[in-house]
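Why do we care about 3D structure at all? Because function follows from shape, and shape follows, mostly, from sequence. That is the central idea of this module. The next example makes it concrete: a single protein chain, its amino acid sequence, and then its structure expressed as tokens.
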Amino acid sequence: MVNGRMLNVFIIAVWIVVILLLASHANLVFKILVYSDNKVLPRWTSASVVSSIVSSYLGNQTSLVVIPVYVGDVNNSQYVLEGVDQVLRSLNLSYYDLNKVYDVIINRYNDVTNETVRDYVGNYTAIVNNIYINESLLCSELYNISSEYYNTYSNYTSTISEFSSFYSSFLRVFFLKLSASSGYDYPTSRVINETTSTVLANNDYSSWLMTQIGYFITVLNGSIGSLSTYGLNVTTINGALSSSYGLTLARINSTYMAMLRNITMSNPLAVQVIALGRNPPRSLVAKLVAYQFINSTPLLIKPYLTQLACSNRSQVNQVMAELNSSLRFIVLSAFSRPPYSYANNVTNGSLYSDGYSLVVVNSTNDVRIYDAFSNYDYVYPFSTGIVLNQLSRMIESDVPVIDEVSSILVLTMLLFVLGTLVAPLVILLILVLTYGAVLGVIYLIGVSGLTVYYLTVYMVSPIVFGIGVDYSLLIVGRYLEERRRGSTVPQALNIITRMTVPTVLTSGGVVAAGLGSFVASNYQYIQVIGLSFIVTVALVILTTTVVLPSLVSIMGDGILWPMGLRSSTRELSTRLIVRLTRFSIKRPWLVLSIALVFTALSVALLLQTPLTSNPIILMPNIKPIQAYKILLSHFPNYPKLHRVNPVHRN
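And the structure:
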């Protein structure tokens, strides 16, 4: 008993040390989360390709802050902008004078679009060349297969024809020689060999037929070669000749059928290209070849696969020219040339439109600018960095609130189900510590170099408290049940170990396998979500099947304080369920109507909820989001500055 108690104390002590070490990193998890969709997508996806093109034009958006400022009347803009300028100068910053920089924008726009297209064309040149080489090799192989197949088939038909000709000549000479030797006692093999020599001397047969002729003579000699020509009857001769001829034809057929079969199996496309005929059309073979590369080819190159297949080198240059045109169209469509009409709207060095002035600042610390204007309700700093920073702040404050609400709800439910105090508090405490450890593990996953998407921290909390409470109730409920049946504490724990723990392990394994299937994804951030799920389930199982029984073993019935063995509310729950069941049976249409109403409300709410991961759409109407809306409505075509020589106000 003492050894068992010491073991339980040791288990709990080790668990506390490990959990606290992991949980000490929980607050750091928000520093490694990725909030931008572009950072979690592979480089070969279409979204990443377009995003890269856009980024090449916009440059490092976190070093550029655009600030819509409400100034009201244009005559009032100078006074308002002077106040904005003073705040910026206190940060050792000043905004661009758009009167001076506009021409630079136009020139830089042309330079950047040309440079962007040139860079991407350069990146795709090697890919296009590699695809052309691989498709050409496959195309050449398929044409060789077609040629080999039809040549082999031609040899096959020629062999059959030549052998039939040989057989006819052999029969004529053989019977002549056989008639001449009818009065002599010769072995038939002598006549067969003489006949063969005569026929071969008078005819020129192909080399591949000689093997078949040799086989024919061997079979014929084996049949009648040992017999004497004296008294040899026609029936025996005809039977031997027919049998040898048939066996030789069968040998020819099997030989060439095996050769043809091997050719058709030499390449997955062999049957298709052979079916196209002796000289298959290039256009059809090109389509077969292009289809083989469709899954491994970048999206922008896929339309050119057929054009590159089975063609000459000039097609590569043509494809690159078309790709150049397509990329230029993408860039120019995403960011049209800035209209010169904006130059007429520049007032006091800023862009003015319908009561708003647009101030542009180049800074590497855009969050500092946002904080400096936090009390200015008419100034709206905006940049990618500001949006992501606000999203990060929201999540850092949002997750603890959600966790607190979850803890209160979990505790309330446990108090209702168990009807006692200590057990709910113990269960909630160990699950909260487990949740902290899970966040710590997610942090360690992030610092190891893997991409952790910000939604991951939202996903693990329901798993911890959901299955954690379920498994804990199974353990504590089974303990209470066995104690009320008269079992001692050790006996009750022994039953839990033999009966309940295997059930929890099985259920946990199924949950881990189902949620952990995310690791099979091609996307790393989804793999990390699956890995986080597996770690979460593993830690919950460890807590509920090892730590909780150890606590029960040490505390005994004290875990049920103050109600003790009277703490179960199962009778109340059962009576309530029975009443609800009877009510549903008596009034099924009412229950169905209520269910339909709630379903309709849920569907309506779902339809109004935007299905997107775009933080600008999901975030509340805070200042950066208001700035974004102002930019869209008042300055829709304004080009962001990119690597422009600073021309600040004096």
